[in-house]
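Z., the sequence and structure:
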Amino acid sequence: MSKIEWTERTWNPVTGCTKVSPGCKHCYAETMAKRLQAMGAPGYENGFKLSLVPERLNQPLQRRKPTMYFVNSMSDLFQDGVPVAFIDQVMDVIRATPQHTYQILTKRSGNMRDYFLTRPVPENAWLGVSVEDKKYGKPRIPDLLAIEAKTRFLSIEPLLEGLGRLKLKGIHWVIVGGESGHGARPMKEEWALSIRDQCERAGVDFFFKQWGAWGEDGKLRNKKANGRTLDGKVWDMIPTVAMA
């Protein structure tokens, strides 16, 4: 099981990554990968350097129960260095397991767009991009919208500034959250509320994941103390999944 609130399990046929934008500054996956390397965990022999783990490709095939998988929580499937042939293998597994739903999130939106220019998106694959700020995050949205996918989503976490108006036509789900961990940057309530309001007007499912290390009152605490309540409510909408 996964501790990530908006999924059920993680599937990591690729591990390791490189930083490409401000949202990567305090990468939880990098910290975790180094811990797993120190523990001698399989797949993390190289720490947070890009590594293909082909022996994990068949993991979803061994599970019959319909499951929501977050693909590569410890990496980015569309980063430079992941061979197209390996991405093809990942997609083959996704197509071979229609009972599952796969959430694929990237910061390399251009690479994902180019990959699917000549390939259909599996029906059970949700495609998403990270949108942490205006300069790096918002330009990823048009790349996502250019892909013919059944379900598209935005992961606005960590939310680092007010984003202004968002292009939500064609987006089905938006996740918002603050940053946690050492050195966490604060998220202002009005930033999150603006996104929530836009989602409500556009009929887009909205999921508020966490406040992170900073509370809505602007005080630094810890993640557990700050919780998931926004404007007096827990927002945990997820698009409806029609399982086989």
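Residues 207 and 236 are 5 Å apart (CA to CA). The chain has one domain: 9-234.

Let me know what you think.
H.
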